[in-house]
Write a structure and sequence with these properties.
alpha/beta; TIM Barrel; 44% helix; globular
Length: 218
């Protein structure tokens, strides 16, 4: 049975990942995140400094995306992007893994790619696995590599390649053995969807529909 007493707002990473987002839109999502008690605001690195200023006296975390959405930038570029974001105030980093390295068996490079950001940033890293693009064996391998690299969360995907599903969340919860958080992202627009994913084991919900979900009643 769904846990209808859950307040999904407290799980939400409120995403504004429109490359054309204006300063006014950034300010609005910050205000809404504070008002509704969302877990974080998630923006592109170029907006981190502004978000940091707007959320300075709130409890809302400042999340940004690294290597987004392809994961195919070099490790040095990802690390620089991550460290600059932290310098600008980011408190959480959603990092896209390099799918090419995974599919071609270059697991040592994939591990290093994620591990150096975990180690040098000192911030919680959410590894974006893009499960919908991976085979079951690749999904398991990617999750295990990221867990070994020291991530704080496993994330279903960017949201650009399909919606998060209950099955994805259950898989990540099982393979992580409760050692890290699970973030569901992609296609989450209603309270019912959010509750189902939380019931399945999601500890964060990535969505740009946070206000609608927070306002929706059972």
């Amino acid at each position: 049975m769904p846990q209808t007493d859950i307040n999904p707002a407290t799980y939400i990473d409120y995403a504004l990942l429109d490359p054309a987002a204006s300063d006014e839109q950034v300010d609005r999502v910050c205000e809404e995140a504070d008002r509704f008690g969302f877990a974080s605001v998630c923006v592109y690195p170029c907006n981190v400094k502004r978000v940091t200023e707007r959320l300075l006296k709130t409890k809302v975390e400042i999340c940004t995306v690294i290597g987004f959405p392809s994961g195919a930038t070099t490790s040095n570029v990802k690390l620089y992007e991550a460290m600059e974001a932290v310098d600008n105030g980011a408190t959480e980093l959603d990092v896209v893994i390099n799918f090419g390295w995974l599919k071609t068996g270059q697991t040592n490079l994939l591990h290093q790619d994620i591990a150096q950001i975990c180690e040098e940033s000192g911030k919680p890293v959410k590894a974006i696995l893009e499960l919908s693009l991976l085979t079951p064996d690749e999904q398991e391998l990617a999750a295990e590599i990221c867990l070994d690299a020291g991530v704080a969360f496993l994330k279903t995907g960017t949201g650009w390649a399909g919606a998060a599903t209950v099955e994805m969340v259950k898989f990540l919860k099982e393979i992580s053995r409760g050692k890290v958080g699970v973030k569901a992202s992609g296609g989450i627009r209603t309270r019912e969807q959010a509750i189902a994913l939380i019931d399945a084991g999601a500890t964060r919900i990535g969505t740009s529909h946070g206000v609608a979900i927070a306002r929706e009643k059972d």
